[in-house]
Amino acid sequence: MQNSPAVEVVGLVKRYGAKTAVDGLDLQVARGTLTAVLGPNGAGKTTTIETCEGYRRPDAGTVRVLGLDPVADAGRLRPRIGVMLQSGGIYSSARAEEMLRHTAKLHAHPVDPALLVERLGLGSCGRTPYRRLSGGQQQRLSLAMAVVGRPELVFLDEPTAGLDPQARHATWELVRELRADGVTVVLTTHSMQEAEELADDVAIIDGGRVIAHGSPEELCRGGAEDTLRFSGRPGLDLDSLLKALPPGSAASETGPGNYRVEGEVNPQMLATVTSWCAQHSVMPERIAVERRTLEDVFLDLTGKELRA
Amino acid sequence: MTATGTFTPRPGAAPIGRMIAAQTAFETRILLRNGEQLLLTVVIPALLLVLFSSVPVVDTGTGSRVDFLAPGVLALAVMSTAFTGQAIATGFERRYGVLKRLGASPLPRWALMTAKTGAVLLTEALQVTLLTVIALALGWSPQGSPLTVAALLLLGTAAFSGLGLLMAGTLRAEATLAAANLVFLLLLIGGGVVVPLDRFPDGAAAVLGLLPISALSEGLRDVLQDGAGVPWQQLGILAVWAVLGLGAAARFFKWE
After folding, report:
1. Which of A2, A34, A105, A139 has the most B C-beta neighbours within 10 Å, making it the best mutation to test the interface with B?
2. Which residues of chain B does A79 touch, with a Cβ-Cβ cutoff of 8 Å?
3. Alpha helices (runs of H) in chain A, residue ranges in sequence order
4. Which range marks the domain in which residue B243 is found?
5. Is residue B2 part of a domain?
6. Which residue has the higher pLDDT, B242 or A302?
7. Nearest to A52 by CA among A185, A180, A141
């Protein structure tokens, strides 16, 4: 049991009436890792997470969380996981600190609520009823409630949606500390930056399936779409450069004296470009290598058009 | 980020008794904090008791007015907390995902319902104490066995809780809010609380007598005003409502 993955989803299907929200999804999360689940709205992220949390029964496929069935073994699983819903979940007249202290009382060995209040900057609003907290404060209280019970595994559904930069960094710090202390973290996000900053593994979901899975580096390396930019004399003849580069590379002058070379950027390619410049008596200035970001990968995979 | 050990996993539910006690205390605090709720559960019954005891607004029959009114107002207090208050609060908890979020906590559902019942009973104990003190000050002289009174109050609570939870678990929160208040008002007038049932036409009185509020207020009146023994008929009516209400709530309650 201890060696089973933290989360193991195989062939998950979930339908709501005629609509298929999740369509044969596979996902594996190793213990002690931080996995970011990325995807456009309506991709099936929340349905997948809520199935892992035991809220939904799969129409097909199997879901195991810490080796347990989230529905059948709910009583044994619930004390071991922490859950942050996408929104709500808190009594509207409960005060922030009171709510956190109460949640701590439901657990055997909770984190000191005062510590979480301080870490998440909830001290100034500790006596404010939930309904009068700002959106960011509500999010942070919800996060604190998810981790106060010292769970083995936490599910955070869009933990930084609507947070200002300070609050986002406080949340990231806390999530990194969870990970460092050995807690397995599964979070959903729209933010590529968040996934790149935090995640060991990224699963990109679209149309109810995982369409890409790997570390941020692996995903960004996946396509050969890196770019090298430099500037020099305007009007250089790029044909001879293209002949020197591996097949499939491209080069263009994007503006007078500004050049872009696309292809697999490696030391060999950089050397080819600079020696070509030397042959043509060009002093290349502002040489810059642009790696594909997770956002480029995401948009390549899921398309750029807006979803209904 | 280096490990600090603050969050090193050490999961586990608190002992079940401690969870239920904590949840009961928490639910009671939340319940008593709500201003509209207090109006309904404390202010209205107390005002009705004081006003109608001192001023002959309604004809309460022979005997002192407070002896007639106190049992009715106690029944009203039970209805306001177990039915109206609980339906509205639970309806909004469902709407705001509170019940959903608690579903992922170590607290089992049955323990949550136990805690909610505990909070209702604690609130009722406060109401009964306050109303008893006011009634005694107004010259109330209660008769009968306290045990029989307790049995009526408990069965009444079960009946009203079942109906309140059924409403909260099936209707939208706004619909529950409106319906629970409307039912409260209608039953206040037609349920033998302040207006004796025999003021209504015979046919109507017979039907009204089958309502849980009438069974509770008439049963309490039989014991407290007339010193009767065990009002089996009223206890029976309340028991049927309790079984039907709690059964339907258990069957149809939607948690989100």
Report:
1. A105
2. 11-13, 106
3. 45-52, 74-77, 96-105, 113-119, 135-147, 165-180, 192-198, 216-222, 239-244, 267-279, 294-302
4. 16-52+60-252
5. no
6. B242
7. A185
Is B6 a domain residue?
no
Which of A77-86, B1-10, B54-63 is predicted most confidently? A77-86
Predicted complex ipTM: 0.88
Say if residue A307's pLDDT is above 80. no
Q: Residue B153's closest CA among B116, B185, B127?
A: B127
- pLDDT, residue B237, reads 97
Best B2, B4, B6 member to test A by mutation, with max A CBs in 10 Å, is B6
Considering the segment(s) A7-221 as one domain, its CATH architecture is 3-Layer(aba) Sandwich (3.40)
Q: What is the pLDDT of residues B38-86, one digit of tens each?
A: 888 999 999 999 998 888 777 777 778 899 999 999 999 999 999 999 9
Residues of chain B with Cβ-Cβ distance to A78 below 8 Å are: 13, 104-106
Q: Is the pLDDT of residue A255 over 90?
A: no
Q: Tokens standing for A188?
A: 């959903």
Quickly state the pLDDT bin for A219 (edges 50, 70, 90). Answer: confident
Residue A163 CB-half CA count within 13 A: 25
Q: From the list B13, B34, B256, which residue is nearest A106 (CB)?
A: B13
Within an 8 Å CB–CB cutoff, is residue B110 touching chain A? Answer: no
**Which chain A positions have a beta carbon within 8 Å of B20's beta carbon?**
none
Contact A88 B93 (CB under 8 A): no
In chain B, residues with a C-beta closer than 8 Å to the C-beta of A179 are: 1
Domains: count for chain B: 1
Domain boundaries of chain A, sorted by first residue: 7-221, 224-291
More confident: A303 or B148: B148
Nearest to A149 by CA among B114, B1, B97, B19: B19
Residue pair A20/A42 in contact by the 8 Å Cβ criterion: no
Domain A224-291 CATH class label: alpha beta
